[in-house]
Amino acid sequence: MTTGDTTVLIVAGGRGVRAGGGDYPKQYRQIGGIPVIRLTLDRFLSHPSRMTVLVVIGAGDAEMFDAVAPSDDRLLPWVIGGDNRQDSVRRGLLRLADDPPERILIHDAVRPFASNALIDRVIAGLDHADAVLPASPVTATLKSVDDSGLVTGTVPRERLRAAETPQGFRFDAILKAHNLAADSGLSFTDDAAVAEWAGIPVRVAEGETGNIKLTTADEIAAADHRLQAEAALALGDVRVGTGYDVHAFGPGDTVAIGGIVIPHSHGIVAHSDGDVALHALTDAILGALADGDIGDHFPPSDPQWRHASSDIFLRFAVERVVARGGAIANLDVTIITEAPRISTHREAMRTRIAAICGLSTDRVAIKATTSERLGFIGRGEGITATATATIRLPFRAAP
Ligand SMILES: Nc1ccn([C@@H]2O[C@H](COP(=O)(O)OP(=O)(O)OP(=O)(O)O)[C@@H](O)[C@H]2O)c(=O)n1
Ligand SMILES: C[C@](O)(CO)[C@H](O)COP(=O)(O)O
Question: Which residues are listed under the site Positions MEP for the nucleophilic attack (predicted)?
Fold first, then answer.
């Protein structure tokens, strides 16, 4: 397949009357949060063959187009289109005529789902033909109907194909055909029809039923739902949980904070090792799962947790996420104490927590503050930590 010297002409000059019209044509409406024309442009600009793209826009649409167009040096300055699709295509072809490409793909701005494989099939077809039409078999039973609404017959569908775009052509051949068609005053709804009329053999390439043209408001709404659902599936069921813990200082000379042991003028009064950061994180993860709290799973009354290292609790919470097919997106802790100073231990804490949870350290944040000598923290009587955990569960995860 030869892919060099292929330009794409995207026609976006229509008013979208069948979709409801208005000042905001359908190619500028959003599906899945992105303007239709932007999706279409991205399809072609991201194609590996690095094609040049020319867009034909409606008179008065320049501001709308410039607002949504990507910045890419392969995107040529737009051309203003005509009163119908055929005229818009011809205006685009004429713009390219001074420095013509070898091959041209002509595509509707309102077909945002053309795949790379489909584009490849059309380009490959041009190695053996001057005109290539992607098309799919018609699956509906087709009826002809008279003006009174009576069925006059059933149309055999075996030889019928529904035409799609991008349609591919040798540039010189389709420009000539369009010029002849314009001179003759005939009108056609696609460029393959212009080629057929001009006597150019049109070869069919396998189309894609997903490569729909957004013609009606219902089709736009369905495409929007499709992309929203895909995005939601990719993102998963995102949940956020928060946690809080407090412990008093007491006799001793070390404190466990954030999974590491730090020398201090006091110890921590606690049933376990009293690591407020790991306890807050454990509760944040359990909170995101709506799975009780640390005390439910590790009751202080149970002697087996006496002096336990708190990484056991945190790992347990992480395993509850993994057991539901989920993953932790990030953990964020704030430690509030007058002393010891946290900043010098921050990286060691991040590394340790990341290791306990099986995360990369860039998903773990440790912050610290004092309470400005106010309250029990300010008097150095205790230490607290708050935490937030964001997790992603698959949809339809077991409750
Ligand atoms: N004067 C025109 C008319 C159509 N098109 C483009 O041709 C493609 C064909 O799709 P179609 O659904 O026919 O678009 P509209 O003409 O906008 O729709 P309608 O007929 O409902 O007004 C669209 O990308 C449309 O923007 C164009 O560039 N210039
Ligand atoms: C070019 C086209 O998309 C091929 O299916 C189609 O013909 C364009 O517009 P239509 O007026 O909705 O047929």
Answer: 157, 213
